[in-house]
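Lab notes, practical 5.
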Amino acid sequence: MLKKTILTSAIAIAVSSPAAFAEQRTAPVRDNGFSYTYGQLAYDRWDLDDGQDIDAITGEGAFALDEHLFLRGGLNFYDGDYRYGDLDGNQIYGGLGFHTPLQRGLDLVGSADIIYDDHDFDPGGSDDELGYELRAGVRHATTDKLELSGGLTYQDIYDGDLGVYGQGLVKVTPVVDLGARVIVGDDRDTFGVFGRYNF
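Output from the prediction step:
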């Protein structure tokens, strides 16, 4: 019940955000100066509803193609437990992202990724699947040193899952950031920390 309440509230906030911020617009903004070219290393903890508790290490990156489009990609290795035994595997993903300013310090951001998952479970064998993830949300320069992001995510690998995501990013130096991220979904809850280098 709590997860459904959080999910419903977050969806309402995400949908109403552009209208709420529209009143604060002044002059048109061409670029908010967010970096969409970076590499990062992350640790995530996945808690999945079918009894899986998984630790994942992920290398990720993005590359800006122009003022609106960027490429995304990553590779993760994961290991954990499921209801019958041990589970380990990897995922590789790649896709395209889009961003545009809504107002000063606020970007609308969307992305679409193709994901390939391959894992082994003991006892039982192995499995693999080709799926995808779609995201839509906002990225906000909350202070000079802090960025906050959030929105909706839909992932379909083995089963479909609708959720909300949130991320906080602290600027340690002009090119180095530290961050934390969370996803709350119907069938998955994840929490992670990461370090990012902006090119």
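Observations recorded by the TA: The CA atoms of residues 101 and 107 lie 4 Å apart. The mean pLDDT is 89.
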